[in-house]
Amino acid sequence: MAIIFAIFSIYTFFAIWTFGASVVGKLFDEITGGNPIFTPVVDTEATLSYLLTEKKSQIEFENGCCFVKYEKNKKLQLKEVKIVEWGNRISFAYFTKKGYSKEALIGLAEDVCVNDQQACSAPQIVYYETDTKEELIQFAETFTKILQNVSDKYPLHEISSAEHAELTTQKQLCYLDEIMGEAKLMDAEGCRVFVRFDEELSASPLFRTVIVKPIKRNNLISVLRPFRSYLQSVGLACAKEEIAQLSTLLYAGGVSRITEPGAMMSGYTGEPHDGVYAMT
C-alpha cells in the first residue's frame, strides 16, 4: 500500500504542476469513481473558476449533463454540480386592453424611475395587445405623460458622457425611423418613449427610456423564446380571467418571474433570483 501511495504522490505532484490542483481533483474523481482513498478534497468553485478563467473553457450541456470543455476537444463532466447562471437580464411589462388603467401605468412609471432602470427587474419594454398603430400611439402618449409626472418626483442619477452619447444616438435613430414610418419618438424632460411597430424583443438604452411595442397574444411565445435565456421579470396588467392563460404563455416563453406593474422592483426575503433558490 505504501508503494501505491508513493506512486500516486509522484504522479499527483507532476499532474498538479501541469494542470492545477482543482482540475486534477476532478480528474481523479472521474478516474476513481469517487473512491475516498484516492480522491483528494476538491473545491468545486475553485475548479470551475480555474477551468473558465485559466483554461478559457466553456460550459456545455448535453443530454441533461453538464460538461466543461477545455483545451481543444477535452471535456470534463461535472457530476452533482449545481450551475447557477446569473448575468444581465431583460424585463418588460405586458398590458392588455382589459388590464389597461391609470394606476397600472403609474406603477409601471415608478418601476422605471426608481433606479433609472439599472436593475435587471426594471422594465425596458412595454408590450400592448393591439392590432392598430393608432391604439398603440394613444397608449404611448398616455404613458409618456404619466412617466413625465412620475419622473419629476425622482432625482435622475448622474449620467456619464458615454451614456449621454448613447441616449442621443438612440433618439436620433428613432427619429430617423419615424421619418420612415417605422417608429415614433416621444421625448420628454428627463425621460423618453420609443414607439416601434414591430414585435421583436429589444433592449432599451435605459435611464428612463421605454420602448413601447404592439403584440398579438398568439405570437407571444415565438417572440420571447429566442431570448429566453435573457428574460427575467414581467409586469403583467390584465383582467383576472386572463391571468392563467397569459402566465402560462409567459413562463413557456422563458420568463422566470411575474408580478404587477409597480411591484417589479420589490421582493421578499428568500425570493429566488432568476428562478433559482441560490442558497439551497
Structure description:
This protein is of the alpha/beta class. Helix content is 38%, strand content 20%. The strands form two sheets. It has a seven-stranded mixed sheet with strand order 6-7-8-5-4-9-10, sandwiched between helices. A three-stranded antiparallel sheet has the order 1-2-3. Strand 6 and strand 7 form a beta hairpin. It is globular, with a radius of gyration of 25 Å. 30% of the residues are buried.
List keywords for this structure.
alpha/beta
User: Ends: how far apart?
Assistant: 40 Å
- Radius of gyration from the alpha-carbon trace, in angstroms: 25 Å
**What's the number of helices?**
8
The percent range for helix content is 25-40%
Number of strand elements: 10
- Low-pLDDT runs of 5+ residues are 4-8, 10-24, 27-42
Which structural class do the helices and strands define? alpha/beta
**What amount of the residues lies in strands?**
15-25%
| Widest sheet: strand ordering | 6-7-8-5-4-9-10
Rounded average pLDDT: 80
Which overall shape is indicated by the principal axes computed on the Cα atoms?
Answer: globular
Characterize the main sheet. Answer: 7 strands, mixed
Output the helix-strand order.
HHHEEEEHEHHEEEHEHE
